[in-house]
Amino acid sequence: DPHYPLRRPRQMCIRATVDIVEAGTILCLTEGLNAVRALRAQCPDKIIVADWKVADAGETLAEQAFGAGANWMTIICAAPLATVERGHEVALRGGGEIQMELFGNWTLDDARAWHRIGVKQAIYHRGRDAQASGQQWGEADLSKMKALSDIGLQLSITGGITPADLSLFKQINVKAFIAGRALAGADNPPQVAQAFHSQIRDIWGE
């Protein structure tokens, strides 16, 4: 069964300890819309993200993502503003949201334009390759995140995040922490998820 990995008990045992479940880019490229549908069926009470990094055809792809059960869909920062607008319009009709993926080149003027048309969220990355090369979170990252927060965007932060990292982002308008590898590679994923929740409560009181 090609969808067996989506149903492994070990992976699903953390369902009670996370708030958002992402259908990641690699998974979606492999399994297509079935990845979103399967996660929606297994996690009916969770926010589901279709991490598609859309670059074009914003309306069509948003209709597919939200139609399959996603609550949020990602659009790459290099996408034309028209693509963002079309995707955002579909998201609004379905009660969903667009997340802008800040991979590669983008500017604060871009961020202002996204926010001006109604987009509320962005994802700030330390990418897989950057992390593997030893790149750490630094003042330049935090400064950019603060500027994005000041524009009014809510940030999801990702890139090898661990519970010990969270205090770095205390002054940032954080929407979520994306912790795929920290959970998937853990011996006890629910325990790690609880550690994230504990740190979030200690730092933000939520």
Automatic annotation (TrEMBL):
Name of the protein in question: 3-dehydro-L-gulonate-6-phosphate decarboxylase
Signal peptide (from-to): none
Classification via Pfam families: OMPdecase (PF00215)
EC number: 4.1.1.85
Primary enzyme class: lyase
Entry keywords, A to Z: Carbohydrate metabolism, Decarboxylase, Lyase
InterPro entries: Aldolase_TIM, HPS/KGPDC, OMPdeCOase_dom, RibuloseP-bd_barrel
GO biological process entries: 'de novo' pyrimidine nucleobase biosynthetic process; L-ascorbic acid catabolic process
Catalytic activity: 3-dehydro-L-gulonate 6-phosphate + H(+) = L-xylulose 5-phosphate + CO2
Occurrences of domain Orotidine 5'-phosphate decarboxylase (ranges): 4-196
Protein family (similarity comment): Belongs to the HPS/KGPDC family. KGPDC subfamily.
Gene Ontology molecular function terms on file: 3-dehydro-L-gulonate-6-phosphate decarboxylase activity; orotidine-5'-phosphate decarboxylase activity
